[in-house]
Design goal:
Layout: E1 5-11, H1 15-25, E2 31-38, H2 45-58, E3 66-68, H3 106-115, E4 122-126, H4 131-139, E5 147-153, H5 169-173, H6 175-182, E6 188-191, H7 193-196, E7 200-201, H8 203-211, H9 215-235, E8 242-243, H10 247-254, E9 259-268, E10 279-282, E11 293-299, H11 301-322
Parallel strand pairs: 1-2, 1-4, 2-3, 4-5, 5-6, 6-11
Antiparallel strand pairs: 7-8, 9-10, 9-11
The protein binds beta-D-ribofuranose and calcium ion.
């Protein structure tokens, strides 16, 4: 039997971050969560931290520590997303969580955890701008050896960017951080918007999820519905359903066979304002640059959605038996 991945989840909840966290909470056989770190991204850092605490409590996972991190990108001004509403998780039944973030900064938590771990042992699941991990790598370069892999959500080649024509949110928000992460020398798995956009949570899937009547399932269906409505209004898409984005990182960790990928060299544009944050993927191997990442460019939508469904229902079952 395979041991679970030992994972630090770096997030900025975020509707799709919320679903990703639920998927991870529901999958202890594959994912051991060492801690959740938050950063500025979809909304300011004060809100991503608050949302992470709330989501943990909602899922009965308050025992998982949340560490608040960087409140701005390394070099550029913050430009938060506008598709997640004022709170970052508009549509979620907000409450004041009874827990607080740890006093240790997210960057220090990453450094402490990684330095205290064997080489090649920790998976970083990055579903937000990568400021925390980049800062940790700069402050303590010895942590790189401890990282088994960095599985991140970001980049686009065929769908184009969702923030600018060239760039996706997590990379655009802090391109310098992304550049440091892609260049750190450890295995990077880039779960791209190309792959995530293939997995759409359509009305029928959401309806079936809602019909289970579970607290988690219904809340996630409501969140995705809200996110989809805002996206549809903003971008004018006519597709049935919102892309899954961040949950695909967790789904990849559970079963990489649900996705199609290819090794490539990936560099991040950090100079041109026109293409700032672009993931320049050498898909054809036309440069002499070494391969530094696995580019996840496609997915099996039915199998990813089926996994998500099963796990969200399972989390509701865990909750029911715990109370
Ligand atoms: C990514 O950007 C954020 O808005 C989402 O939470 C996701 O991490 C999608 O491009
Ligand atoms: Ca996110």
């Amino acid at each position: 039997m395979n041991l679970p991945h030992r994972v630090i989840i770096d997030c900025d909840p975020g509707h799709d971050d919320a679903v990703a966290l639920m998927l991870a909470f529901a999958s202890p056989g594959e994912i051991e969560i060492l801690g959740i770190t938050t950063a500025a991204g979809n909304v300011p850092a004060s809100l991503t931290q608050k949302n992470a605490l709330m989501l943990c409590e909602f899922a009965g996972k308050s025992a998982i520590s949340v560490y608040a991190g960087c409140d701005r990108p390394i070099m550029r001004p913050s430009k938060h997303a506008d598709v997640h509403g004022v709170t970052g998780i508009d549509g979620f039944p907000s409450f004041v969580s009874s827990t607080r973030a740890e006093s240790l900064h997210a960057v220090d938590f990453m450094i402490r955890t990684l330095l205290g771990s064997p080489d090649d042992s920790i998976t970083m699941a990055c579903i937000a701008p990568m400021t925390n991990l980049a800062m940790a790598l700069i402050r303590e370069p010895r942590i790189a050896a401890k990282i088994r892999q960095i599985v991140l959500m970001g980049g686009a080649r065929s769908t184009g960017g969702n923030v600018t024509p060239a760039a996706t949110f997590n990379v655009f928000f802090d391109p310098h951080a992304a550049s440091i992460v892609f260049g750190c020398g450890r295995p990077v798995v880039a779960v791209s918007l190309d792959a995530c956009s293939r997995v759409l949570c359509g009305k029928s899937w959401l309806g079936t999820l809602r019909q289970t009547g579970g607290r988690i399932a219904v809340a996630m269906a409501d969140l995705i519905t809200h996110y989809d409505a805002v996206r549809t209004k903003k971008f004018g898409f006519t597709t049935d359903g919102a892309p899954t984005n961040d949950p695909c990182v967790i789904a990849w960790l559970i079963d990489p066979g649900l996705f199609v990928s290819r090794e490539a060299n990936i560099e991040i544009e950090v100079q041109s304002e026109l293409t700032m944050g672009m993931t320049v993927v050498d898909f054809w191997g036309v440069t002499q640059r070494p391969r530094n990442a696995l580019w996840v460019h496609d997915a099996d939508p039915d199998r990813v959605l089926s996994l998500m469904f099963q796990r969200l229902v399972r989390l509701d079952r865990f909750l029911a038996t715990a109370t």
